[in-house]
Amino acid sequence: MPTSHSTSPGGVSGPAMRDHLVFYLNGQRHTAGASEATLTLSEYLRDGHGSAGRLCGTKIACAEGDCGACTVLVGKPVPGEDRLVYETLDACIAFVFQMDRRHVVTVEGVGGKPETTPATRLTPPQQAMVICHGSQCGYCTPGFVMALHGLAEAASQDVPPKGYSEDELRLGLSGNLCRCTGYEQILEAGRSLAAQTVGPLDQRYDAAAICADFAQLGETSVRLGGSNAPPNGAPNGSIKVLTKGPAHDAAATSGGIFLPATLDELLTHRAAYPSARLVSGATDLGVQRNHRKITIHDVILTTRVPELDRLEVQDGVLHVGAAVSWSRLEAFTRELLPAYHAILTRFGSPQVRNAGSLVGNLANASPIADSIPFHYVACSTLELASVRGVRSVPIADFYQGYKQLDLAPDEVITNLATPLPTQDVALRLYKISKRRDMDISTVTMAFWIERKKDRIDSVRLAAGGVGPTVVRLPRAEAALRDGEFTLEAMRAAGRLAREEITPLTDVRGAAAYRLQLVENLFAKCWHELAGTAAVRA
Question: CA 92, CA 72: separation in Å to the nearest integer?
């Protein structure tokens, strides 16, 4: 087995560091080195790596995380407890290096005890798919079965288990596609399970033993491949506050696959290897790699750093760390920010939201990113850290052009701070796309309107999909500010907004269509806030 060493990523003495990954697959312990770490999880499963053999129940169709045929369950230890919490994940865009100290369960591993006879090894979701004729060509079936198991696992966390609603069923299956249009039978299978108690995976596998093994490994960093030490090792110094600093000019050499356990290690490694890719969920990185646009050889995984796991409200400000997944944020904002929560449920699929992060979405800098308009009108601030110190950047200043960021090569986004709207603020967020779920936006918009009686005291507006970056609409804002909140005023502001945007024509919509959409959303917002029309968001 590979051994540990005690050289920190910056070339200075530090805690012991593993040079191999450890994870479980259907209850069996696996180790992986550098050569296997950059495989996608689906490749690892299907090509027979490790001791499990070829697990071809995990299907590959889109290789983009869109169809869910590759859905698996991934268990993460609960701190201080001898149990694992499982979430669904798209194996085609997840990498083996993300599986360290995780338990991966495939469709081959959800069945009954191995000693039972084959006739009794179908799980309740599998049996429901058989009885309800939910499987036609069968290619998508393993993914749907795993998604149903994911719903059952989530329901099993409640005491007593409460099952799931029709809305939760449809949302839980929104990341799985059936090409035979057998959705009604699949939904019927899901409905038949809603009131059942499906045995959690902790009843099949020895969760306590797995957790004990992970605990023995300790909270150490992992480094696979790369050069032994960079030519310009950066000092592992303390972090101090600064306002602005020059970009660090450390040489760009290969740092291999690095899983830091502390923020200091992360920043030191980032300074030494500024060309390394920062990865949280890899939901975009996996797609690029599968399309052969990039190769994976120099990566820093952020999800093991405790300081980046922050998710809390402090003094009226929502703080979201760089490693917080969309799913955690979605659950956290259900009551706190209903409008934002509604947008998040349409962001990707459950499998994607369980892996991807808000900060990753911000750093990707797409002008049609669903999250950005809200953070523009909420005046969010990004916290950027490096070995040189920490600085804060308003989100509107962070984007300087298409895919151009105010982010030095050695800096890392550690936190996003967002002032929450007060009771006087009406917040409306819109995502216009060709289909409701799992689709890229044509136009996104955010309205932040504070009224006093029938007059607008303050207003902030932001639109996405209408230029190289998300944009504020200052002329429309000025026209509404201090005026009456009327349909006529909102329509007039919508006409002004058309003059402030420069949309392109592409496969998701013509420029003229986008212009009209933005104008129409002003009227839609008024109808919703005035309560004069039941308009669906």
Answer: 10
> What is the DSSP-derived secondary structure letter of residue 151?
H
Measured distance CA(419)–CA(400) in Å, rounded: 22
Q: Which residues contact 177 (CB under 8 A, 6 or more apart)?
A: 61, 66, 67, 68, 69, 140
C-alpha dihedral sign at 523, 528, 529, 533 = positive
The answer to whether the beta carbons of residues 501 and 471 sit under 8 Å apart is yes
Residue ranges of E strands in 277-364 = 277-279, 299-301, 311-314, 317-321
Nearest-CA neighbor of 464 among 506, 502, 437?
502
156 contacts 204 by C-beta, under 8 angstroms: no
Strands (E), 139-269: 222-224, 257-259
* Angle formed by the axes of helices 487-498 and 511-530, nearest 10°: 160
Kindly report whether the global pTM for this prediction surpasses the value 0.85. Answer: yes
Residues 6+ apart with CB under 8 A from 325: 280, 281, 353, 354, 355, 356, 357
Task: Look at residue 228 in the predicted model and tell me its pLDDT.
Answer: 55
| Distance (Å, whole) CA 272 – CA 292 | 26
Terminal alpha carbon distance of the chain: 55
Among residues 145, 157, 64, the alpha carbon closest in space to that of 110 is found at 145
Query: What is the 8-class DSSP label of residue 292?
Result: T
- Closest by alpha carbon to 148, among 176, 180, 112? 176
- The CA distance from 385 to 263, in Å, is 9
Q: How far is CA 528 from the centre of its chain?
A: 29
Residue 322 and residue 310: Cα distance in Å, rounded? 8
Task: Give the amino acid at 341.
Answer: H
Q: Would you give the DSSP letter of residue 111?
A: S
Half-sphere exposure of 474 (CA within 13 A, CB side): 1
Phi, psi of 182 (to 5 degrees): -100, 35
Q: Write the DSSP string, 337-406.
A: -HHHHHHHTTSS-HHHHTT-BHHHHHHHT-TT-TTHHHHHHTT-EEEEEETTEEEEEEHHHHEEETTEES
Helical (H) or strand (E) element with 77? strand 71-77
Mean pLDDT by 10 residues, the chain (537 residues): 37 66 96 94 92 89 93 95 95 96 96 54 90 93 96 81 86 93 92 81 92 94 78 40 41 79 96 94 91 87 96 97 96 96 90 95 91 97 98 97 95 98 95 84 96 91 95 97 96 97 92 96 95 47
User: DSSP secondary-structure letter at 177?
Assistant: -
The percent helix, strand, coil of the chain (3-state, each to 5) is 35, 20, 45
| Residue length of the chain | 537
Structure tokens at 455: 């007059």
Minimal CA–CA distance to 501: which of 529, 526, 467, 470?
A: 467
Which DSSP string do the residues of 195-224 spell out, in sequence order? TS-PPPGGGTTTHHHHHHHHHHH-S--EEE
